[in-house]
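Researcher: Here's the sequence for the chain we discussed earlier.
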Amino acid sequence: MTKPARILYCHCAFAQVVPTEVKQEVLRRLSESGVAFDAVADLCEMSARRDPGLKQLAGEGSLRIAACFPRAVRGLFIAADAALPEQGVEILNMRTDSAEQIAETLLTVNGKPVAAAEDSK
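Model: Thanks. This is the structure I predict for it:
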């Protein structure tokens, strides 16, 4: 079985380009799931500061990111000298997709809820 990807949630606190209701619902669903995830205030700000945490995340391999446009997210990591690998990274767009779609994708591995996938290791 494939190991669940590390989940990164961006709250987009400064640019505020992601609809508030989508951010809040995705965060609520992640929090209630009991699944481990990383939440950051703003990937744009982290990139501007060249936060070393971005290099660590980029090195994880299997990563699911809930943020905004995939091209923009990849660009933020590149700007911080922490390019994401081409394979193993899934970027979900909270600007265009529904909270339901994003939460389902984040919390599912091989068609099973992540908690169930983790239990069957």
